[in-house]
Design goal:
The chain is of the alpha/beta class. It has 17 helices and 17 strands. The chain is globular and about 55 Å long. Bound molecules: nicotinamide-adenine-dinucleotide.
Length: 440
Amino acid sequence: MKNGHSRNSLKRNGSTRSRLEPTNGQTYRAPVNGGRHQKPVLITGGSGFIGANLAHRLLSSGQPVILFDNLSRPGVEQNLEWLRQTHGNLVQLEHGDVRNAAALNTIVRGVSQVFHFAAQVAVTTSLINPIEDFEINARGTLNLLEALRALNNRPPLIYTSTNKVYGDLKEVRLRMNRGRYEPEDEGTRANGFSEERHLHFHSPYGCSKGAACQYVLDYARTFGMRTAVFRMSCIYGLHQFGNEDQGWVAHFLIKALQGEPITIYGDGCQVRDVLFVEDLVDAFLLAQEKIDTISGEPFNIGGGAGNTISLLELIELITELHGKRPEVRFEAWRPADQQYYVSDTRKFSKLTGWSARVGVKVGISKLYHWLQEHCRLKTQSILQIGDLVKERQNLANGNKSRVERPALRALRNRKTIKLKDFQQRNASRAKLNRTLAKAV
Ligand SMILES: NC(=O)c1ccc[n+]([C@@H]2O[C@H](COP(=O)([O-])OP(=O)(O)OC[C@H]3O[C@@H](n4cnc5c(N)ncnc54)[C@H](O)[C@@H]3O)[C@@H](O)[C@H]2O)c1
């Protein structure tokens, strides 16, 4: 069992494929054409949260995957380690930067499909360094499109944009209902915002992602490439190392697990639709499968009207899961914050048959338990490192293990122990490394 999935064997075209089946009984899709002899799928930003989840699904069906990533996001090296340990040589890392056009020109040769996720992902960071944000998000995407355009056989491309391209939505009339914002308009309340909504890029991040999104769509229109864009709201799930700048669901859960206060920007009544990452992976696979039908189109993708939560409701859910209410602090609204955003996913559903299947409570509870395990392991790595090192010697002497399984796994691989140090300040990391350097 891996991450709540059981692996089933599935015979297709005379070869054995694997199908992932989550423990709640829903069947997730495996890619249609898996196999070691397949051309690889390229995922830029493939070590990140969404990339790693997609890669895992593809790799689990025997599909080779290339991850093109500069590993700039703290914590994502753990995802890479996990994919390597789980799938061995089927996964390949190309340590590269999307600002490097030459590297992209090389890596796109011979791939069957492309998913472009590499990005500067936070509005906050884009306010500090708009040029870098532009270089990565807009120019980096154009670099990739040009690399693909130069090929004779151009693989289809799926790009992940954001709901921020619709701006702060201040023009939408809202009302308060039981401690959460909701639109006054009945249709918007029932279905959310569709792709018909006018674009209103807000914040440097909104502009760079929005520009990239328009380029991706235009390369379908002007150059006949097969491309599609997902304008995504909040995605959450396993292998997400959320922080205050991006990934708020995981960030709130991590803070609660660490016993640290949670800062809410605004009043906490803002509402988002949230989508569990496995459902998103389903949507990606369907998008590639139906690329000839959906090419040149943007799609709003999220949990939709049936999977919404306010920030304060998440605090309540965390209290339920954690058995203790986390301390909450309030700060002023941040630029480009939306008080209400819910995706109308009907356009994509109509064309592909897709729908979100994992409910908010189920998904958040899965993420909580996954993070709980990781935080526990991290604490062991920092606090009990002396014991772990002793245990390593103990094992080397052929003795039976005296420690728990996850700690033992970390112990067997010195690198893994270091990597488990996610979300720690440099001081802790340095302390851990010093301890290891001395003792191992
Ligand atoms: N997670 C969400 O809720 C959400 C919502 C809307 C849109 N998106 C978009 O989805 C994509 C994936 O998001 P995620 O949540 O997995 O983020 P993530 O930060 O976990 O993954 C992004 C990956 O890109 C890599 N990267 C960053 N800059 C790079 C560069 N210059 N060259 C190569 N690699 C680089 C990072 O190291 C990281 O592994 C992003 O494009 C993001 O804007 C995500």
